[in-house]
Amino acid sequence: MSNFYSAEVLSVHHWTDRLFSFTTTRESSFRYQSGQFAMIGLDVEGKPLMRAYSMVSPHYDDQLEFLSIKVPDGPLTSRLQNIQVGDSILVGRKASGTLLSQNLLSGKRLYLLGTGTGLAPFMSIIQDPDVYEKFEKIILVHGCRHVHELAYQQRIVDELPQHELLGEMVADKLIYYPTVTREPFRNQGRIPVLLESEAFFEQLGVPAFDAADDRFMLCGSPAMLKDTVDVLEAHGLAEGNMSHPGHYVIERAFVDK
Ligand code: A2P
User: Fold this and answer.
1) Residue 165 sits in which domain range?
2) Fewer CB within 10 Å: C terminus or N terminus of the chain?
């Protein structure tokens, strides 16, 4: 059996000239946990050209959804950005990734910190009822350069709290904090800077973070991950993995190079 299967594109949404998302059919044998990624791509001159993409869609959905940047000379995204409804893409049969709540110690609050397309794995996580069972509050922070790059705002703010099954949990436990760095907006600043600011936690209505109560999942560029981890470690938090659950876990957001 091939490592990939062919999925049909069901919808495409262009958020900006740098950002788009799309949905595809899902093979029923393809299983994943919230927060995981799969290899997806296109057949280019007879060869599969694949990159890691986190699933935006919740693990129980019958479709898959992905969020992607558009890199003009990127081997995959320069092509992928032109996909149309009815086209086929390749999806790897195996999902993997470290952004799993079982890699974290139990705690009161779960922070999901993402920049750019680093939001993607957190979209599946905030649609997972099990995550709401484990934490008192889920705090989703999405950092972007510009306001129009804050993808899925409407789904997070308007649709999820009205969701038939999740709505009550979302309304009670999910705090969404979008932040922008290159234009005026109600929230501004980079994530590591926010973590060091009292005003940020006051706005969220929670105590400043500590190793006893707070857990973190991070997804962004290598620089964002490094700077954020530096702040967490300075406060005594330690990274978790499959064999040793910890205070935080990280995943690099996808780049097409
Ligand atoms: P900034 O505008 O100050 O560079 P990008 O599109 O380049 O991936 O950036 C997405 C968001 O991540 C932007 O708001 C950007 O802020 C921010 N960012 C870039 N580098 C870092 C970093 N080292 N730590 C935290 N946030 C960062």
Assistant:
1) 101-252
2) N
Pocket test for ligand 1, best of 19, 115, 188 (most atoms within 8 A of CB): 115
Is 64 contained in some domain?
yes
How high is the pLDDT of residue 2?
81
Strand (E) or helix (H) holding 223 = helix 222-234
Q: What ipTM does this complex have? A: 0.98
The reported pLDDT for the residue numbered 257 is 81
Identify whether residues 33 and 124 lie together within a single domain: no
Kindly report, residue by residue over 210-224, the tens digit of the pLDDT. 999 999 999 999 999
Q: What are phi and psi of 118, to 5 degrees?
A: -65, -5
**For ligand 1, mutation pick of 68, 69, 221, 228 (most atoms within 8 Å of CB):** 221
Per-residue pLDDT of 26-64, as tens digits, reads 999 999 999 999 999 999 999 999 999 999 999 999 999
